[in-house]
Design brief:
The complex is a heterodimer of chains A (415) and B (197). Chain A is mainly α. Among the domains of chain A are: 123 residues, Orthogonal Bundle (Cytochrome Bc1 Complex, Chain D, domain 2), CATH 1.10.760; 52 residues, no CATH class. Chain A has 20 helices and 2 strands. A two-stranded antiparallel ribbon of chain A has the order 1-2. In chain A, β1 and β2 form a beta hairpin. In chain A, α2 packs across α7 and α13 packs across α14. Chain B has 197 residues and is mostly helical. Chain B is built from 8 helices and no strands. The interface between A and B is large, with 67 and 59 residues.
Chain lengths: 415, 197
């Protein structure tokens, strides 16, 4: 009997290996233990939180699992691994120990066929042409056509104009030859014109006035921009895109900058917070693994073993600060975000559209004061009704602005 | 003589063109720009995220001393171990302080859930957040009893605090008091999901 069993399991092994080999050449549903399309669905719903096909996550990689374990064992393990471990199965206990004793939940609701479907999916994988239908989403190459296109359009246009100029010169010279005059080059024509212009005093005066006004204007704005960092767009140590995170993926600003509503500073998130998502998402659409590896280098996460390196000396990411008020003024994020209920975009602009973050607002005193003059204060809170009524009577208006409650007092920001 | 005036007028034109080009291209946006009397702008003290050479690790933002408990904070004594999680599954009651919450606190729980949890777990708690829909994440479980039978208030609190599986710790983002509000909201979503099934 024992020999029979061994033979059967051997045969099964051969069968499974054959399946895998066949599937890599040509996938036909008959060679698989189940339906990989249904398996994919089930895998994504039930298993993908802890397992990936191609690499270790919380649990081991699932590709080729049918080569390493028998089908019965897998069915028993997936159905209820605690029971299997309790029965003294050595393999089961070894797996449990290897993966830090984090117990896999039981799946009593999965039928035998469901489990076989999942196993079929682990054999087939995410092949685009597989019966699973929808393979992995092919990431589009990041196309940045606008800028390149403009350069080419401009180059083409200048080439066209140059040719036009040459043709016109040719026509002019041919006409001159017909009239019996000497042909002249473009440069000669140009300098002749300039000579006429220079002799015209009115034109020189006009030109001087225009140029002086232009230079004065440049000087004025040059001086006015001192200390105003609007448009500042430094290169950051990690090519983090707010457009992808806050825009396309719709993650709330406060998910990372949670300090904005809690304190004076809006915090720069730690690399550990990045790991909340990037422990799972290990490849970006644009830079692949290069930029995400910088997070791993900061916190000491090892891609190979998919775990944190013990005793690793963490290296903080040296982000470059963009928004920087002079230290002679006081600004509190919580007061504006939590109390006034302002949207982040009011001051920071359309951050969710910024590939590289830049300073959107002027952050000058005039800019602050303007907003304090215009912004109405919420006076709905019944607890302060008496005070609000007094203010309304004082200013003879139903609209109370930040200015009216002392938003322009020097000492509020400078002390 | 004629050639000299020719050269001069050309020079004038060249100068004008050069000046206008120079004036319009002077701002380099990778630099913060010019400052007038920077010592009025920048105080000598270290700022929040600035490197501070007085500390060995040069971190300006110091972590609090381990075991520090802010006044009035709830203390969750369990550690981040699989055993502690198993134990939390057996605690089916809220701590008395958080058993009943006001409408306002419930709304606050909902607000924080929407910010910190909904991207993965979904607005309805069905595990279909925007990141799952975009296939960035897979396998986020639903809160429904059929999918996760054993959830208790304390186990939800434990998972927000320490994370579980792929989910990371959200202890920094959701403060202890707020965490219980979020737990109330998660249990509310669970009821709604169970009702609809």
């Amino acid at each position: 009997m024992k020999i029979m069993k061994k033979c059967v399991s051997r045969l099964r092994m051969v069968w499974v290996v054959l399946c895998v080999m066949l599937s890599s050449l040509m996938v036909s549903a008959q060679d698989l233990p189940g339906d990989p399309a249904n398996g994919r669905k089930l895998f994504n719903a039930q298993c993908a939180a802890c397992h990936k096909l191609d690499r270790r996550l919380v649990g081991p990689a699932m590709a080729g699992i049918t080569e390493r374990r028998s089908q019965e064992w897998l069915i028993r393990w997936i159905r209820n691994n605690a029971e299997l471990r309790a029965s003294g199965d050595k393999d089961a206990i070894a797996v449990y120990e290897e993966y830090n004793r984090s117990a896999m939940p039981a799946f009593p609701l999965l039928s035998d066929q469901d489990i076989l479907d999942i196993l079929a999916y682990t054999i087939v994988g995410d092949q685009p042409a597989s019966p699973a239908g929808d393979g992995p989403v092919t990431t589009q190459a990041p196309a940045k056509p606008e800028r390149g296109l403009n350069v080419w359009v401009l180059a083409g246009l200048s080439l066209f104009l140059l040719i036009l100029l040459m043709i016109l010169v040719k026509v002019k010279n041919t006409l001159k030859v017909i009239k019996g005059e000497e042909p002249t080059s473009v440069l000669e024509d140009f300098s002749k014109g300039v000579q006429v212009a220079v002799k015209n005093q009115k034109l020189i005066v006009l030109l001087t006035v225009v140029v002086s006004v232009f230079l004065l204007k440049e000087l004025y704005w040059g001086l006015m921009s001192i200390g105003v960092e609007q448009g500042y767009m430094p290169e950051q140590p990690i090519a983090f895109s707010h457009k992808i995170h806050a825009g396309e993926n719709g993650i709330d600003c406060k998910y990372c900058h949670y300090g904005a509503e809690k304190g004076k500073h809006s915090n720069i998130p730690s690399a550990a917070l990045c790991m909340n998502c990037h422990k799972y998402i290990q490849e970006g659409p644009k830079y692949g693994t290069a930029e995400i590896d910088k997070i791993y280098a900061a916190v000491g996460f090892d891609r190979e073993t998919q775990s944190y390196i013990e005793g690793y000396e963490e290296k903080p990411v040296k982000w470059v600060r963009v928004h920087n008020l002079p230290d002679l003024s006081y600004f509190n994020h919580a007061q504006h975000v939590n109390v006034a209920g302002l949207e982040c975009q009011t001051c920071h602009g359309p951050v969710e559209e910024m590939e590289v973050l830049y300073q959107y607002s002027e952050l000058t005193m005039g800019w602050c004061i303007n907003c304090h003059r215009e912004t109405e204060v919420n006076i709905e809170n019944g607890y302060y009704k008496d005070l609000h009524d007094k203010l309304k009577a004082k200013y003879k208006s139903d609209k109370i602005t930040a200015e009216m409650i002392g938003g322009l007092e020097c000492g509020k920001c400078h002390y | 003589m004629g050639t000299i005036t020719e050269m001069n007028s050309l020079k004038v034109f060249a100068a004008i063109i050069f000046l206008s080009v120079f004036a319009s291209c002077s701002r380099d946006y990778s630099k913060p720009g010019r400052e007038y009397m920077p010592n009025m702008y920048r105080v000598a003290s270290y700022k929040t995220y600035e490197p501070n050479p007085n500390f060995k690790d040069s971190l300006g933002a110091r972590p609090v001393i381990e075991g520090t408990v802010p006044r009035g904070y709830f203390v969750y004594e369990a550690q981040n171990t699989p055993e502690a999680y198993e134990a939390s599954l057996k605690r089916k009651e809220f701590p008395s302080r958080y058993r009943e919450i006001s409408e306002k606190d419930f709304e606050e729980g909902k607000r924080q859930y929407t910010i910190y949890c909904a991207v993965c777990h979904g607005e309805k708690g069905d595990g279909n957040g925007i990141l799952v829909e975009k296939e960035k994440f897979a396998g986020v479980p639903s809160y429904a009893s059929a999918s996760r039978p054993g959830l208790t208030p304390v186990s939800i609190y434990h998972v927000i605090t320490y994370g579980k599986g792929v989910m990371g710790s959200h202890a920094a983002q959701v403060l202890p008091d707020d965490r219980w509000k979020v737990v109330h909201y998660v249990l509310h979503l669970r009821e709604e999901l169970d009702k609809n099934n």
